[in-house]
Amino acid sequence: MHIIGHRGASAYAPENTFAAFEKARKLGADFIELDVQLTKDGELAVIHDDKVDRTTNGTGFVRHFTMKELKKLDAGSWFSPSFQGEKIPELEDVLHKYHKKIGLLIEIKSSRTQPGVEQAIGRLIERYGFSNNTIVQSFDADAIMTLHNLYPSIPGAVLMRPRFGMLPHGRLRHIATFARYVSLKHTMLNPFLINFVQSHNLKVFAWTVNGLKTGLRLQGWKIDGIITDYPDYFAKEGKA
Ligand code: G3P
Ligand code: CA
């Protein structure tokens, strides 16, 4: 079972920063989950919200800043004064540091308001070399399909909230034509659903699992990975 640090080890360090990514790695995560938004100058910034207000000392939409302007913001102090000076990372810098060293689960946010985000991510990953452990996910299945059509070697994941703990067979069969994973909200999972999804040649990730009991239960149900703010709860061993 993969242990995937949600926005890094976001329980311990400001989400989507190198501090959180390093913490996840040290706590034994084998993947880092992160979110990307396109900037005004077409670069890929690692930040969850479409505005900078919640996680930095700035205000306004990410798409109204250049990457250079975003890097001037403090993305750590909101979490704790000890993280003052943490920056919004650029996806390229994350790939430079971690690609093929630790798994990356890159989430496309609001692809409809960011035309071309699939191409931008695909181009960057292609430059660093495709890897089974550099996965792109989105709630927008069309974005994952677009990415697959452009870059079939990039593994895709579709994020979903299954209704009443079920997913239609036809929908899963369709998703399996362009994605390798589905990422499902953990509260909606049961062993039958996990097995049903896997029978469509799709792997299953669960989000966001922050309880030890829940994680162990999912492991017993043969889930392929859990996305968690607390990688240390589940990882076999941390790293120096
Ligand atoms: O990876 C699943 C999870 O990250 C999706 O929700 O809002 O935390 O990006 P969110
Ligand atoms: Ca995310």
TrEMBL record:
Which positions carry the signal peptide feature in this UniProt record? none
Q: Where is the GP-PDE domain?
A: 1-238
Reading the lineage from the top rank, the first entry is Bacteria
Gene Ontology biological-process entries: lipid metabolic process
SUPFAM superfamilies, per database record: PLC-like phosphodiesterases (SSF51695)
Looking up InterPro entries in the UniProt record yields:
GP_PDE_dom, PLC-like_Pdiesterase_TIM-brl
- Pfam families of this UniProt entry? GDPD
Q: Which GO terms describe its molecular function?
A: phosphoric diester hydrolase activity
* PANTHER family assigned: GLYCEROPHOSPHODIESTER PHOSPHODIESTERASE, CYTOPLASMIC, GLYCEROPHOSPHORYL DIESTER PHOSPHODIESTERASE
Which protein is depicted? Glycerophosphodiester phosphodiesterase
Species for this entry: Bacillus glycinifermentans
